[in-house]
Structure formats: C-alpha cells, structure tokens
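TA notes. Do not distribute before section.
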Amino acid sequence: MESVHGSSTSRPPAPVIQPPQEDGACTDEEQVMSEIHLGCPPNVPGPRISCFTVALPPRDEWVSHCGDVNTTSDVSYAMDEDGDLILVRRNESPSPNHSLVFRVQHNVTSTLPMVGLQVWRAELVLADFVYHQMTNSSNWDGIVAVELGCGTGLVGMILAIGANTVFLTDHGEEVLGNCAQSVHLNSGIFNPESSIRIRELDWRGSWPPLDGQSKLSSDIIHPTPYTWSSADIKDLEKASMLFAADVIYSDDLTDAFFSLLESIMSTDPEKVLYLALEKRYNFTMDDLDVVANGYSHFLSFIQHEQSQQEQDGFIGKLVNFVDIPHYLRGYDRGKDVEIWEIRYMKTHRSITS
C-alpha cells in the first residue's frame, strides 16, 4: 500500500475509525482503520506484531527448495488484552498439514498519509493469489519481482520464498522501516538465495529515480538504507512481474501510479502487473448517489483486453480467484475485492537502422 506523500501526524486519543475513502472523504489528520483490524482496540498507539498463517499445499517438492522454513501445526487466531493477534492451537487433533507463519509488524490505525503501516484486505487476497501461482506454476520460480506500495510487505515476503530478487518499494522512512522490521522477523522463511531490497519510490517523482549520475547512492553524502543504486535500476529493469495491493483510493495518486507504470512497463522484457483493489463507495453531492469514483477513475486507464487498441496504453482483464483456496487463514475476502492482470502495449514500435 503506497503511502500518500507527506509526514505522519500524532494520533488523537479517540481516533476516527473508517477505511480509506475516495478523494475528499477523509482529511490527512483523521485516523483510518483497515477492516482487517476491526476488533482490535483502536486507541493503543504504536506498532504491534501479528501472525498470519499460510497453509502449505501438499507439494513437498516445492517446499523443499525453500530450505529450513518455520512451520507450525494447525492453528487459529485469538487476541490478547492489548489487541495483538496471537496464535493458539486448536483443541482437536493436530492436522498433518503444516503452515508457514509470517510475523507482520503493523499499526491498528493510522493517518491517511501513513496507511502503509496497516494491513489491508486486498493485500491478503493478492497474497493468496501469489502463493497459489507459486505453488502451481514453475514460471514463477526464480523471477525478479517488484511490489509497488508494499506497505507491510506481506506479498513481497511471500514472493521471496521462491523468487530470485524482490524489490519492496514504498514512500516514507516510517513505512519503509516498518516493512524492514517485518522482513527481519521472517528472514528464516525466505529462499536463502533470494535478494530482498527495500527501496523508496515516490510515484510523483521520475523513473528511474536518479537525476543523472549526481544522485546515485555512491554520490549521496548521507544515503539511507532505501536509496537506489545504479545496480538496483539495472536489476529492476529485468523484472517480469509487478504487484500492488490497495493502492487505488486517491485520484491524484492513481494518476501518479499509472505514470510510473508506463515508464517501467514500456521497456523490455515484457512485464505484467497483478493489481488487487477494493472498490469503496461514497455518497457524493455531484452524483446524488453512492458511487465508487476512485474505481471509475482507475478504469479510465484500462483498455479491455478484447477491445481494438488504437494507441499505446494499458490493457487489462479481471482475474477469477473464486476457486483459489484461502491459504491465509482468518480473514474474509468480502465482495468488492478484484484482481487485475495488466500489461502495457505499444501499437507502434520504432524501427532503427
């Protein structure tokens, strides 16, 4: 989840609890809460660590290449007195199946500019989709992958079980630092040969995020752990798959998102984006109705896969994930989450002599 450009503000004692809405429905100072965190005490400040359990499919040959992973027997969720999600063993006999347990650091509420500190429903749906593809297709082995607006980094961490290189990108040191902590907590699960790189990426900036050689990390007096290097840029250009979840909630941010995508996806090799979003509805005076304007704005960038393409642009199709199992336990997918498969297509390619 991409955090909106800006800094974090202090939390009021009694936060406003609501999901992120379309433009104009929530100010930067108000508190928002993901549906995933409903039931947790909203007025407990600071991060906490929750455990997300992923059921392993019966494919031992796939799991074996992941090395010595952390597993647990069949589990369920409970919450302690502070509202932290904890794992408790079921009373019935343990299941012969095992699970991966991802420990994710997150906040229960945040301001709108810092929504990347929370876990959102579309992130969990995309994580299920990614895990299903990884365990059923060898085409996902050893890939170079990029998560845009990674937030807590759960999707990217699942990718790191089998990928060669994973870039986890977001904006703001607080969000990136929180993601880095989650990566550290789960380091024993990843493919030991996988490279995980956490990098700051402002969608409103240029791509690549370097202004000539003057802004290479080697030339910056005080580079951060999230600064890009020229080697990073070259490696990211090799990516074949991009991922994003719950980044469609601000029209301005959606504009910046697709501008960045065009820069990244218009170069070889061909790239595909898997985007999970949740349609959110508001009553507007302009429409005098409850509408999902942010979703409509997103659709304005997408040409249907079967339509006649007359200019360069994005083509997309909905992914049917109804039959994909709930690998991640303990959450409701809802009725308004969609996954899109998006590519950037050029109608004319320049011919050089």
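Switch to the second chain here.
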Amino acid sequence: MGSVFSPANKVSLTPGSFLTYIFPVFVCQYMMGVLVQLRGTQVYRVALLPIVLWFTWRASISVDPSGGDPARAQLHSVHVLLMFSEAVCSFVWATAQEPYRRIPVDGKLSSESQGSRDKEDSDSIATALWNAWDLLLNVRGIGWNWSRGLILPKPAFEIHSRPVFVLWSAVHFAFQVLAFDATAQVIRMISPEGFTSVTGASIYDPSLPPVWQLLRSVTISGLVMLMLYFGMGWFYHLLAMLFVTVFKQHPSQWPPAFDSPWLSTSLNDLWGRRWHQVLRHTFLMVAGRPSKFLFGRLGGVLGVFLLSGLVHEVEHRSFGRGGNFVVVVGFFTMNGIGVVLERVWKRVTGRSVGGIWGWMWTFSWMALWAVPLVDEWGKIGRFGASDYVPGVFRQSAALASFVRRYI
C-alpha cells in the first residue's frame, strides 16, 4: 500500500493534471449527488459507483500536490485522504435506500433554493441540480434528512446574519491559525533532535531517565493532539466563511466542529460527542451497520473504529516512508475497545463512566495508545512536513516580535 499511495512517480498538480485526474472525480460525485435525491435511481447510482471508484483511485495514485517536496508532503496526504473520503461517500450515496431530502434549518431551508421551497417540487431535476452543491459541501448533513441522530455542539450564541457570522468566523480563524502555529513551535522546541525534521526521528530519547522520557513523550503527544484540534479548527472556519458567502449556506449549518474535547469524562463522551463528527454518518453506513448486523451492537462500535484506523493508515502511508500498521490502526482499534469496555462496565455495575475518575481514565487510555502513534508520525517526518508553502510565514513568531517591540 505504501508504494501505491506514496508521492513517488506522480505528476504535480497543474491545471492540466487537475482537469485530467481530479475534475472527473467531482463531476461523477456531483452526478451521484443529483441522483441520490431522485426516486427510482438506485440502479443508475450503483452503475455509476465503479466509475467513481476508478476515478478516485486513479487520482490518488497519479497526482502529487506537494510536487515531490518533502516539506510539503502534508498536501499529498490531504489529497489522498480527500479521494478516499470521496470514494466511501459515493458508496453511501449509491446504496441509499431512500431519496435524500432537504429539511428546514431554524425554520428556513439550509440554503437559498427556489425549487426546494415546495414539497411537491422535491423530485424535480432542477431542484436536485442546485441542492447537489449543498450536499457535496455539507458532510455532516445539517439540513438533510439523512443525518438523523447527529449530535451537534451548541454555539456560544446563535448567529443568523451572514455578515456577522463571517466576521465571527474570521476572528476564530485568526486565533486558531496563531494557536496552531504556536503549538507547533512549542513541539519543535521540546522534541528530540530530528523529530520535527523532514527526515524524521523517534519521540523517545534514550539519553533521558525513564521517568523524564515518559513525561516528555506524553507532553509532546498531548501537544500534537492540541495542534490537530487547532489545525482542523482554522480549516473548518475557513470553509465556513467560504460556503456561507459563496454558496449561501445558512450559518446554522456551521455549528462548532468540536465540543471542548479536553472536558471529556469518558471515551464514549470524547468520540461520540466532543470530537468532530464530520464522517460519522459515512463510517456508520460503511462499517458500523454491517458490523452490527454481523457481530451485534458492540461489534458495530469496533467496526467504525477499525474503518477509521484504516483511513488514517492510508493517509499515513501516503507520505511514502512506510509505517507501522499495528500502531496506526491499533490506536483507533484500542479506543474502540475502550468504548466497549465502558459499555460493559455500565452493564455490569449500572453506572456510567464519568466525573474526575472518568476524565483520568479517558486521557490515561488515550495517552497509552497516542504516544506510539505520535512516535510513528515523527519517524516518517510528518512534523517536518507540516508546511503547505516552503518558508511559510510564522504568525506566532511575528506576533511575539511585535508585542516585544511595541507593547
């Protein structure tokens, strides 16, 4: 798998390679989004599915947005992950049993569509053509009938005005960009030599006493998770500003991506509510329901975590420097087992995991499996390949310099 998804022997991302390899993926995905809204189209969707899968596979193994630059390898990783997501999403749409329908958001439809205002017009092709754009850009399904059971974080206060929402998102975006960069700089300062380079190195430092080595490894791993939180946060707010402005989505379609994950008092609380739920529906449809049917409810839980591990393994291998399947997939599988253990505990004792002891359990279990995962990331040079543009402007360093000079 590593040789297939690695950036070696691939073409750079240019207008020509985009039109040849990537544009067909989005065209087919758009067609699938139109068909899934119309009745009696499952045969056509199933027939289209192999074509979509072929195009996503071809794009994954043919294009390298990083241009072969190790310092920009994260771009290639994101590209492979996006193509993989498009493939599994297409599978879900192709096998949907009922047409997807728009539902009101805060008393209004989730974006401005003339055709979808009337129920009787819900099967029209014109309506489906417009709504497919929202379907493509709305991975959590807010404002759609297929996202039943989705738990969404509540914003600090409701915003209905698009200009106010965009301004508020811009403030969050700026803060999280600074926080992401500052966290990355702290990781660089306290990590072993080579850990944050493109060549990569282990998180473990044998020259340190075991206790200090453990403390530093856990601290670095915690900071890495915090960096991921800020990184996904600024990207989320960037998309929110774009889609609310350009595609006229309603601000209610963009509630917070996370719900204070550091306050989690159980693994169920962390993964089922407080961490982002972007791919929840997709994972449930592709892995959760089949595993539940075959192995029962707890088997469904493990199936979702196993699929998540496989997705991250593909993304990990896309750096082209090998990897450790047991460590990467094991992190997610063991978190699934932790969730199962909590449910068994509740069944046996009648009490849910929670409180301060639940908080300690949650992050002790996370640290146990996160440290080997972060070590694996460090070995492939992931933390030296975090720049999307070579010589990227260091926002936190510039801000600190400004404060020292003028304040």
